[in-house]
């Protein structure tokens, strides 16, 4: 069975528990409050044939680009997020994208999945989970 193609532009429609997640990453109080007010847009470029993927998260405050090949570990510079570097692998878990980020923080990673025109993102770190939902632009 073919894997889903995640390509598209998605606008955030909801988020839950973001402040607690950012606190787990040691983000200071003022920056957490700013981040929780942002409404990011995600641009996803996915080449199912090669496994290449680019996820660009854009806000009025900061942008963050993540380029990777599915199933291949890479060094991820999370400087724009929390100043850390980690070893990251993104691969399929069924029809979901599962990211494992090995570094200073235990249990860090995320999962993306599609439900109709919605892109779900669940972020995890040290037992704390935050969730964002994005709607595909038409």
Description of the molecule:
- The protein has 138 residues and is mainly beta.
- 12% of the residues lie in helices and 55% in strands.
- It is built from 2 helices and 10 strands.
- The protein has a 10-stranded antiparallel sheet.
- The protein is globular.
Trace the largest sheet across and list its strands: 4-3-2-1-10-9-8-7-6-5
Report low-confidence residues grouped into runs of 5 or more.
none
Q: What structural class is derived from the secondary structure elements?
A: mainly beta
> For the residues shown, what is the average pLDDT?
93
How many helical elements?
Answer: 2
Rounded to the nearest angstrom, the radius of gyration is 14 Å
Main beta sheet strand tally, sense and closure: 10 strands, antiparallel
Quick rundown:
With 138 residues, the protein is mainly beta. The protein is built from 2 helices and 10 strands; from the N terminus they run βααβββββββββ. 21% of the residues are buried.
């Amino acid at each position: 069975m073919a894997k889903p193609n995640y390509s598209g532009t998605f606008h955030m429609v909801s988020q839950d528990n973001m402040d607690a997640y950012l606190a787990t990453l040691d983000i200071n109080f003022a920056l957490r409050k700013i981040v929780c007010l942002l409404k990011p847009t995600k641009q996803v470029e996915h080449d199912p044939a090669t496994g290449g993927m680019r996820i660009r998260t854009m806000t009025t405050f900061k942008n963050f680009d993540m380029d990777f090949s599915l199933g291949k570990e890479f060094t991820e510079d999370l400087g724009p997020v929390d100043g850390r570097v980690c070893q990251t692998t993104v691969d399929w878990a069924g029809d979901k994208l599962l990211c494992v980020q090995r570094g200073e923080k235990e249990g860090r990673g995320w999962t993306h999945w599609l439900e109709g025109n919605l892109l779900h993102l669940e972020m995890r770190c040290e037992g704390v989970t935050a969730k964002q939902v994005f709607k595909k632009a038409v």
